[in-house]
Design a protein that fits this description.
single chain; 414 residues; alpha/beta; Rossmann fold; 18 helices; 15 strands; 18% strand; elongated
Length: 414
Amino acid sequence: MCPSLGTANPEVRTLPRDRFSAPVRLYCCPLPPARALRLLISCGEPSGELYGSELVRHLRPELPGLDVFGLGGDRLEAEGAALVAHVRELAVVGLLEVVRHLRRFRQVFRGVLREVDRRRPDLAVLVDYPDFNFRLAAALHRRGIPVVYYVSPQVWAWRPGRLRAMRTWVRHAMVIFPFEEAVYRDAGIPVTFVGHPLVDLVQPAADRRSFLEGAGLDPARPVVGLLPGSRPQEVAHNLPPLEGAVAILARRRPDLQFLLAVAPSLDGGGLERRLRSSPVRLVPNAAHAVLGASTVAVVASGTATVEAALLGTPMVVVYRLSPLTYALGRPFVKVSRFAMVNLIAGRSVVPEIIQGDFTPARVAAETTRLLDDDGSRDEMRAGLADVRRLLGAPGASRRAARIILDVWADLKKA
């Protein structure tokens, strides 16, 4: 069933595999007989796909007959979008890794444009994922299709020249961090800070005791949460030093318990086999519950650090790329901090252990400091509370939907 169209037999085209990747499945659903707004949405990674699905969920009550198609995942499909390709085909991190999968990206890109030409959307919403979406935006602009950018690219961190391109084709930018609004406004791009969608979405387990007991842990003992990333390549780089840190911590503190949050995009069975002799318990699809239950968390830099901040969980932020990818990319990064929590706060709220500094001994030392020092944890929680306030009031997805409705109203008047 093609969920948004009520069609039982969408055409499915499978492109041949290349030497690096699995076959790419491109979907082509029959056109509906009537529509209110035909919306292209492009989300190339899990966090952006979550925000995109929430946006569509808030649009549907306001736009009966809304027709959505594009690039997304299970959440977006559940909201009635017809997928041209799935985000799992594009979950790649790092410059070299992207180069290895260029053929796959080109196949997906051409598939999206074929559907754009066939279906002719009234409006496109591009969510984060700038390397793919910038090319798509330029192609849409040539076709006369208006573009709204949601979760705009981090031009303040690297490649600020992208602002010139955005000024050409972005009708409106919707940003989720407060300091971004001035950056885009100063560049002459219509912009609105809508707040962060996670403010509404992040919730701990309703009952911490029951959650920990269900995971086989003692609620009275301290818990170290581990979030190594949501993509296989991230985990491949981040997990080895985390395993070493766990071994050190377990020797020093036999009272410690360890929970690892397994993202839906990861191979839980493979992780379980790898960590079989470790004291780490694996919990699938429960990142918020793991963070909420943790005394201290060790979190891969990215969206999970914002989730931890919203839950007030003291954390150590870690990250590692392949050495060559890091060496190639680091000269272009224009910020002195990496963790989103620190960037939002404008100061160092949480420790960052990045690349060569990311060793088992360093992670164990920072984690031990937070576990042993109540004052350090309290100070960090106060800083995380500041971050939460800066992320805006609840209702970000509703406000983003309102902007889409306003843009659509203006387009109908033109």
